[in-house]
């Protein structure tokens, strides 16, 4: 059965394709509107930091249980070698996952080599002080050998969904090994090659799978699980607790600390930063947001609202100018003209309404030019071209349909004669099998063996998500501005792909324009060639890495 389009609101945020139906934002999100985050330190999860030797922390077993890690297969040519402790099944104390596996590696990359330690393990959350085990959260950590922890940054990374594991950022973008995601297919070989654009050169990396994603699990069920983990508030509180416990367990209190979040992860990152600042006693030096949702009130606009059309038009123009499936540039096409039109004359004519014939004629001419669609079709739509129509009609003659995650990437339309076609997304669905297999193989090579299903995109989490109880849609804009105002040394990088119709870049450009005038080096907005996962393009991945490294350097000066 096909996954419901609205289930994943970020790295499964196919809701961008379903925004055409009328109704309020909450109905479209299949949940109630959100409540104000309580930002409590625990929210039912044990807050007590365990000492490194505590068996509940999931540390590797005693010497009698340790085994030499297996050498990673297929990586000898790149100089990778893994030797260390292989995860073993722990004693029956409520845990379901193996103990930590620690392996040593050496990676040969263009112009350099990296020696590092990989640790796959868990952070345990308990039901109150001294209570029973409530959840195990899997963290995959890469730490460069020989670095001084006092000055070496450590970065905590999570994807979105809600319900997505961190595989996208790990083996798709920033980890030491990467799989090709340019135009994925389920039968692609899940071979992760050494990643020349890894961030391990300038920061240690901790990839976190929130509860219910990857192999992370909880004993909580129903409303209890929603309250503790599968809600805007519970998610933030639990992840902030995980970050603090990891920092304390590994003695990294002095290290510069950063957060990286993609899509819905970019929505949660400013909130987690605030929770760490004000509730957990952990300062954050910088935050990097990839293709984030900052305000769900913007994402779930009704058809009569002009803002959704204004926000999406520049990404449609970027798709047309970048080329259908051929664009690989790191830089987006020049979009200054369509941005001026969208925020100016287009907005004005939209506000005039569809009964103004002169306004409709002006919009038809301009929108048809910027999108490449038939003017007659644009006129029938009242100058308001939705994402579904754009992705379908651009390739209707060729019987192909575009991906909402990168509209320049297309795939065959399985229903070319149908009036409406809602196929699997060429990027999101096309990458599920290869990313899942890549991650399970990576765990095997890192010596962490487990016989459980891996949840790249969890239906249970996405379908259970609780948005809260307030009348307004959830937003992270206030969390972002408050975090920046509280810590004058914090830096933020917001990065988007130009041809992304899931989280259109122009939406966040307009939102961030409403923030106070923070210095440009503290809040930077960048747009690259590509879509939601713009890092699938080599040039964009390189440019993004350079921008991130500059941010890290500025934040730690």
Task: Give a structural overview.
The protein is α/β, with parallel strands linked by helices and 557 residues long. 32% of the residues lie in helices and 15% in strands. It has 16 helices and 15 strands. Strands 1, 2, 3, 4, 5, 8, 9, 10, 11, 14 and 15 form an eleven-stranded mixed β-sheet that branches. A two-stranded antiparallel sheet has the order 6-7. The protein is globular.
Helix-strand layout with pairing:
Blueprint lengths: L24 H4 L54 E3 L15 E9 L2 E15 L6 E12 L9 E5 L8 H8 L2 E2 L14 E2 L9 E6 L7 E2 L3 H7 L3 H18 L7 E6 L1 H17 L5 E5 L5 H4 L6 H17 L13 H17 L4 H15 L3 H6 L6 H7 L6 E3 L7 E3 L19 H14 L13 H6 L12 H10 L4 E7 L7 H8 L10 E6 L9 H18 L2
Parallel strand pairs: 5-8, 5-10, 10-11, 11-14, 14-15
Antiparallel strand pairs: 1-2, 2-3, 3-4, 4-8, 4-9, 6-7, 12-13
Helix pairs in contact: 2-12, 4-5, 5-14, 7-8, 7-15, 8-9
